[in-house]
Specification:
334 residues; six-stranded mixed beta sheet; 37% helix; 19% strand
């Protein structure tokens, strides 16, 4: 599904220096961060004043990306973030399809007078923006930012920092090119590598930077918090509030944990269900083939995402959430 406005409309908007804000979803991942920083680097070449706003903190593994430390974290500086959005002449909304994905910043963006542009690859974008580049067949928002720059005819304005940020989104949203791929994403990757991206070092920075504490969390999760359901070709890893306190689990420490379930022979669906210290229940879902965890998340856990990688939340207890997941899963295996 694709929704694309005339590129000439936004070309005229960015042709002269303006106040611009780039915002992405809460708990930003590699694609959200990479697309935001890449677009910022590109727009800076036009002489714009560009600010990136993250609703919440970003995982420390992405600190190697250029200019990430200049981003405004809404949770840490709410007044400044709101002021930048209110004053912006253009607001780019990246890697989210609805204002609820930026939590309490949603009304601020909705009420802002600036021109709003959405670049995203999730289903059913809400009608709050003026410009849309929305394509669910894209591997990532970084792929679409690359497309946006290319269609403007301005690839020459992409430097190594921009290319590296874009490659970050490609490899994180595709699991190093193992899912959600398409022929074009490999063409984009090749082009970025020709620009000088060191994909080996980039991959090493993102995936080989675990601490001993994180390895202990992984060991505990696999040994003590893994349940498998062979009859459903599914597995669940769960963590409760006590686990978070005992292992001092912080943002990003459990990234990728759900994928270990799919390493088990015969597993086709994986769920990582955790009880946050606040008591909130969160789910990360993964699947193989034609099994849509997106539909499962949207139908039963107030969530969504992609066909094979989605997330959601639950208002019942951890135990009840696990039971509910196992109970409803057969409906999505047919």
């Amino acid at each position: 599904m694709e929704t694309v406005n005339d590129i000439e409309e936004i070309r005229s908007k960015i042709s002269t220096p303006k106040e611009i804000v780039i915002i992405t979803h809460r708990n930003p991942d590699g694609d959200a961060i990479g697309s935001s920083l890449a677009l910022q680097g590109f727009l800076n070449k036009y002489g714009h004043r560009v600010k990136v706003v993250f609703p919440s903190e970003y995982p420390v593994i992405f600190e190697f990306l250029a200019h990430i430390n200049e981003a405004i974290i809404y949770d840490q500086d709410r007044e400044r973030a709101k002021q930048e959005i209110t004053n912006a002449e253009i607001i780019f909304c990246l890697d989210f399809n609805g204002l609820d994905r930026i939590d309490t910043l949603g009304p601020t963006v909705d009420e802002a007078k600036g021109y709003k542009a959405l670049i995203d690859h999730h289903l059913d974008p809400e009608p709050f923006a003026d410009y849309y580049l929305s394509d669910t067949s894209a591997s990532s928002t970084c792929e679409l930012v690359y497309r946006f720059i290319s269609e403007l005819g301005e690839k020459r304005k992409m430097d190594l920092d921009v290319a590296t940020a874009l490659f970050t989104g490609l490899i994180t949203d595709t699991g190093s090119f193992t899912y959600a791929t398409n022929p074009n994403v490999f063409r984009v990757a090749a082009d970025l590598k020709e620009m000088g991206v060191d994909d080996y070092t980039l991959h090493d920075n993102i995936f080989n930077c675990w601490s001993e504490r994180q390895l202990n969390i992984l060991g505990h999760a696999l040994r003590n918090r893994l349940k498998t359901y062979p009859e459903l070709s599914a597995g669940v890893i769960y963590l409760d509030k006590k686990d978070y306190l005992k292992y001092r689990i912080a943002r990003g420490d459990t990234e990728g944990l759900v994928n270990y379930i799919l390493m088990i022979k015969g597993m086709k669906v994986a769920a990582f269900i955790r009880e946050m210290p606040s008591g909130e229940i969160k789910l990360s879902l993964r699947s193989k083939g034609d099994i849509s965890v997106q539909e499962l998340a949207r139908t039963h856990f107030s969530g969504g995402g992609h066909k094979n990688a989605s997330g959601g939340s639950s208002k019942v207890s951890l135990e009840e959430t696990i039971d509910r997941f196992v109970t409803v899963l057969p409906d999505f295996l047919k």
